[in-house]
Every structure is written in structure tokens, then in C-alpha cells.
Backbone:
């Protein structure tokens, strides 16, 4: 379902100019209102309404009652409604539906289907005190239309608004898809940056990543590390790749270029002319173990190893074979489209010279081609097809004789935009490209891109329409959207794994470090309190010795659950290491943290650990002082925990220097 307003999906200004041109040509009024009653477009209202009926309070009331009746008919699902208002004129309303959703209403009216009853309007002038001569003069300026013309006009504008809205909605979807792709690229760059910060985090991520993560020694051109996913990409194990230089993974010409590039960058880094914060992105063909070649995107970043004093190249290699295939297909499609456009320009000259040349052109192409006559102003098609080619017959499953008895709208799928809808713009611009869906004789749909050109032949205005089958392109677009969703889901899973302790399900040490860093920044910026609680399971080694490590893991998990359920919503518990836990208490002073620790101590003491029986925990607490480093606060909490252990365990001790 669409979440945007009609005015967000269409160009209101273009629609207003179109309606003004329509009013100038036909004399009919137009109005477009959204479902909130906002008037988006209004043109050409008749004097009999604006100067008389919409001025007098009683006739104004009649106008509003008529509007209510029209809107009520549309809300019941009517495709359109024609109504004679209580003041004697005819009004028409049609719902504007985009992607199956009713978003606005199109109104026209203030006209007659036949010569108006003059006596009726004379009596109306006398009843409401209108100046009779001026009133009758305004009546004479109101147009008279036949019902077929009104229905055709309303249908034309409705379908035009539908097409503009659908194109706007498609543009919004494409912008969202591009934003998702950009967000994913940014995420990958952040991932590479994080790999430089922690070897432990690096290896955890590489074990689960789809991309190949590696480290290369630029002096020896040997890989120092390659993640296991290289097997899925190229069929080699990490050990096989590390045993060879990087040249064996590339085509010979690419290997030479990469060696030269690495040497130049190494010289630049050592000379200080290049920044280590720079990321390099290349697209390379890599050799697989089975002899095949796979296209890859390689993102690299140089890093100075402080321990060894040597530079390392850290990189991420991603399989882009599908993307390359799609790019190649799009290029072929673009080249084909360009070629066909050039053929179309040549065909215009041929069509002016001879209808015989048209027949030759029709039967030499690979796409269905249709020729039909249109009105030179409105763009509305006249009668049946004038000519079709053999491809059109074979693709749609009709004989040539059958197609020549059909109108352009007869081959359009009912759920799609009706064929005449873009014809006004095509007639004005003399060309146009739009998408639609044909319905073959056997009922199956054929999505097409229609490239239409207008040309004049003798005294007729004709449309030359070439319909290209875009079934494969639509499928590729759907596949690309699905791939984006899969990547986003996988990245979310990896992020959760990287911050969670596998046994207890609590935050791990890495995540607790991040939280402590951010909470310290909050303390420094806003002056808020921050306390930490270190928790250690008393005599935990005896559990492992007496009952085994499996029972020990059960006790760890159970105590994790007690802590998680016992803390406040703002507290952050996590596993600090071994049988130790850390609870971060934002906005909490020492007294508040002590109360929480005592509450948790009692919960653990009351808990029954089944085979292991009753267990207890000791608690050490510290509150951050002004300008104190995190390690100092943790160290004070650790000393308090030590005092609790020395004082008989199952106790809460605090470092009162922080209070």
C-alpha cells in the first residue's frame, strides 16, 4: 500500500498546465482534489457558478449537497459518476487510483448534455433574486457536451494522472534501493576499519563473513592471513592461498600491475605522501581452482603494524559476478536500445517515402511494431491498427488479420495503464518511452517498454510504436532487491554475534568496553553519575572439580539469567571473563549501585542450582570520579571485590573513594 500522498507522486504544476490547456481547448472545467479535500488543480470554472450559484447561500447549499452525493458514489466503488446538480448543471467525478489505492478525485462539469431549459433558469433567477439578463448571459456561456465526449475526456485525464503517479512511485522505490546500496557500502568500509582495532574481533567476524578477508605482506607478496570464505569464492583452502604469492590468484597482466601499484604505495607511505586512512577499491578477475575466473571487488587499506614496524595490506574481497553480469546485460540492452532508436529515426524518413518500405522495416526487426493513427492535438488513437509486423503477431499469438481488427487498448492488460494514456504527451513531444504490459492471445502477460515516435504521412498523424520485451530485466530487478535484503539480514546477524557471549547470551567483553567508553563520554559531557559492579561466583572452581565443566556452564548460564532479570532497565550486564560478570549502572551513584548489588546477592543466594545446590556471589562496586580513566574505576571495583572475598564471600563491598 502507498504511504505517500497523491501530490508527492505527481508533478502538480505540470498537471495544472495540462488542465489549463485542456480547458482552453474544450471549454470544460477541471478540478483535482485529494481525499482530505485539498484542491490541487482548478481551471475554467463557469460564471454561472462562480458569480451566482456559489454566491447565494441557498444555491451554495445545493452545490455542497451535490458534491456530497458525488463523493458518496465514489466511496461505494463506482468507477465514475455523472450527476445533474440541484442548480441544473451536469457534474462528473472520477476516482484517481494508483497501485490499487484511491488517492484523489477528478472533477469536471458545469456543462449540459443538451440545450438547457431556459424557463427553469428564469424561474430560478426570480426565486433567488439573480439579475435575470446577467444570469441568462452566464447560462449561455456554459458549454454543451455529448456524453461520449465527456466520458472519453474523463478517462483520458484519469489514466494520465495514473501514469504520472506510477512513474513517481517507481522513482521513489529506485531512490530507496540506491540508498540501501549506499548504506551497505558504508557498512563494509566500517567493517574494514574495525578489523584494524582488534585481532580477536577480526577473527570472529571473518569466520562468519561471506566476503574473503585477508592480510598481505607487501615486502614478500605472500598472504599472512586468508579467511575460510576463500574456499567458497575460488575453491582454494586458506592454507593453499597462503603457501603461494598473490600473483597466482590473478591474471598475469593484473598481477604485474598490482605489484607495481603496491611498490608505489609502499614508497608513498614511507615518504609520508599518502595517508593510511585511504581506502582503495579495485575490480579484478581472480583465478579459481577449477580453472574458471570470477569477477571480484577488492577493498584494501594499508596498516602499520606497531609490533613489527612493517606495513601490512588488509583487504576484503567480494564476489561481484552477478553484478558484472547485470552490468553487461544492461550495457547490451542500452546498446540495443540505442541501435533501435537510430533505426527508428531512419524509419521515419522511410515511412514518409513509401508504405512499402514500412513493411520491409517491420519484418526485419526483433521486436513487435505497431502503427496507428492519432488525433494530432489530444493524441487519442483512431479506430484500429493500421499496420503490425510479423513479430507482433507471433509474440501475441494473433494472426495479422485479427490484430488489424483490434484497437491499441485491446492488447493492454486490464490491470495496467491503458494504452491511450500517454498519447497526449507523445503527440505534443512527437516521441515518448513508457512501460506497459501486453496480454497475449493465450492470456499470459508480457511486460514491455514502448518506444513511440510520431510522424506525419500525407494528411494523417501516425504513431510508430516499438514494444521491447523486458521480462528478463524485470526479473533481474527483483533478484537484485532480494539480494539486498539477504545482505542486510546477514550483516545484522554478524553484528549480534560479534557483541554477544556465546554461553550466557549476555554482552561480551568487547561490547562492555564499547558501552563503558560511551558512558564515560556521557559523564564527561553532562556530569552524570556512573557506577560499575564486578560480580564473582564464590568457589566456582569446586563446581567444575566436583560436577564437571558442563554443570559449571549450567551454573554460569543460570547466574547470568538471575543477573539479567534482577537489574534495572537502564543497567547493562555482561560477562567480563571466566566466572566474573560486570554490571554497568548509568546515572547511578555508589549508594544506588550498592542497593542493586545487595538485591542481586540475595537473589543468587535464594536460587536453587539443582545438582550444584546453593551458590553465592561476591560483589565489588566503584563509582567514577571526575576525570578518572575507565581502567582506574574497574581496578577500584576489583579491589572492593577482593575485600568481599577476603571478608568471607557472599558480600557486597564498595570503594568509598568515589562517593
Residues:
Amino acid at each position: 500500500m502507498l504511504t505517500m500522498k497523491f501530490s508527492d507522486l505527481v508533478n502538480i504544476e505540470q498537471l495544472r498546465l495540462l488542465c489549463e490547456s485542456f480547458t482552453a481547448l474544450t471549454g470544460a472545467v477541471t478540478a483535482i482534489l485529494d481525499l482530505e479535500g485539498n484542491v490541487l488543480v482548478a481551471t475554467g470554472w463557469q460564471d454561472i457558478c462562480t458569480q451566482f450559484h456559489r454566491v447565494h447561500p441557498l444555491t451554495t447549499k445545493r452545490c455542497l449537497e451535490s458534491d456530497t452525493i458525488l463523493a458518496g458514489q465514489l466511496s461505494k466503488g463506482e468507477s465514475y459518476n455523472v450527476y445533474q446538480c440541484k442548480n441544473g448543471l451536469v457534474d462528473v467525478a472520477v476516482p484517481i487510483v494508483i497501485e490499487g489505492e484511491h488517492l484523489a478525485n477528478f472533477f469536471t462539469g458545469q456543462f449540459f448534455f443538451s440545450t438547457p431549459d431556459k424557463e427553469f433558469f428564469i424561474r430560478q433567477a426570480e426565486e433567488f433574486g439573480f439579475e435575470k439578463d446577467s444570469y441568462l448571459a452566464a447560462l449561455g456561456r456554459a458549454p454543451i457536451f455529448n456524453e461520449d465526449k465527456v466520458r472519453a475526456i474523463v478517462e483520458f485525464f484519469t489514466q494520465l494522472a495514473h501514469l504520472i503517479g506510477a512513474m513517481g512511485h517507481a522513482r521513489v522505490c529506485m531512490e530507496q534501493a540506491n540508498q540501501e546500496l549506499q548504506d551497505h557500502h558504508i557498512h563494509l568500509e566500517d567493517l574494514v576499519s574495525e578489523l584494524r582495532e582488534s585481532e580477536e574481533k577480526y577473527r570472529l567476524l571473518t569466520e562468519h563473513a561471506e566476503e574473503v578477508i585477508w592480510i598481505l605482506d607487501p615486502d614478500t607478496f605472500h598472504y599472512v592471513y586468508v579467511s575460510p570464505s576463500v574456499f567458497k569464492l575460488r575453491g582454494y583452502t586458506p592454507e593453499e592461498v597462503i603457501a603461494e604469492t598473490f600473483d597466482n590468484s590473478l591474471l598475469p597482466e593484473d598481477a604485474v600491475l598490482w605489484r607495481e601499484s603496491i611498490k608505489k604505495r609502499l614508497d608513498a607511505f614511507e615518504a609520508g605522501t599518502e595517508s593510511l586512512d585511504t581506502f582503495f577499491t579495485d575490480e579484478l578477475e581472480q583465478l579459481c581452482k577449477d580453472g574458471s575466473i570470477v569477477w571480484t571487488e577488492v577493498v584494501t587499506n594499508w596498516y602499520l603494524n606497531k609490533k613489527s614496524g612493517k606495513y601490512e595490506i588488509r583487504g576484503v574481497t567480494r564476489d561481484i559476478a552477478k553484478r558484472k553480469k547485470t552490468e553487461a546485460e544492461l550495457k547490451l540492452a542500452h546498446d540495443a536500445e540505442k541501435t533501435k532508436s537510430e533505426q527508428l529515426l531512419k524509419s521515419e524518413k522511410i515511412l514518409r517515402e513509401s508504405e512499402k518500405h514500412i513493411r520491409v522495416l517491420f519484418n526485419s526487426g526483433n521486436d513487435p511494431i505497431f502503427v496507428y493513427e492519432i488525433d494530432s492535438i489530444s493524441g487519442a488513437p483512431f479506430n484500429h491498427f493500421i499496420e503490425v509486423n510479423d513479430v507482433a503477431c507471433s509474440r501475441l499469438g494473433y494472426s495479422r488479420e485479427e490484430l488489424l481488427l483490434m484497437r491499441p487498448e485491446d492488447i493492454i492488460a486490464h490491470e495496467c495503464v491503458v494504452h491511450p494514456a500517454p498519447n497526449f504527451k507523445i503527440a505534443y513531444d512527437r516521441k515518448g518511452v513508457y512501460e506497459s504490459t501486453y496480454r497475449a492471445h493465450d492470456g499470459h502477460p508480457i511486460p514491455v517498454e514502448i518506444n513511440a515516435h510520431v510522424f506525419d504521412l500525407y494528411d494523417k498523424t501516425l504513431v510508430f510504436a516499438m514494444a521491447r520485451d523486458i521480462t528478463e530485466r524485470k526479473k533481474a530487478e527483483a533478484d537484485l532487491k532480494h539480494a539486498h535484503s539477504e545482505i542486510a539480514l546477514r550483516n545484522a546477524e554478524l553484528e549480534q554475534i560479534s557483541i554477544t557471549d556465546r554461553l550466557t547470551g549476555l554482552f561480551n567483553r568487547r561490547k562492555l568496553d564499547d558501552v563503558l567508553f560511551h558512558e564515560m563520554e556521557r559523564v564527561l559531557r553532562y556530569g552524570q553519575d556512573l557506577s560499575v559492579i564486578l560480580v564473582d561466583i564464590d568457589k566456582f572452581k569446586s563446581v567444575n572439580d566436583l560436577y564437571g565443566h558442563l554443570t559449571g556452564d549450567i551454573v554460569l548460564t543460570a547466574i547470568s539469567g538471575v543477573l539479567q532479570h534482577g537489574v534495572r532497565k537502564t543497567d547493562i550486564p555482561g560477562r567480563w571473563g571466566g566466572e566474573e560478570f560486570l554490571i554497568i549502572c548509568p546515572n547511578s551513584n555508589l549508594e544506588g549501585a550498592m542497593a542493586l548489588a545487595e538485591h542481586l546477592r540475595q537473589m543468587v543466594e535464594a536460587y536453587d542450582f539443582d545438582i550444584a545446590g546453593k551458590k553465592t556471589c561476591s560483589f565489588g562496586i566503584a563509582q567514577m570520579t571526575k576525570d578518572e580513566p575507565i581502567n582506574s574505576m574497574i581496578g577500584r571495583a576489583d579491589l572492593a571485590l577482593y575485600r568481599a572475598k577476603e571478608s568471607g564471600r557472599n558480600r557486597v563491598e564498595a570503594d568509598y573513594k568515589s562517593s
About this structure: The CA atoms of residues 621 and 637 lie 5 Å apart.
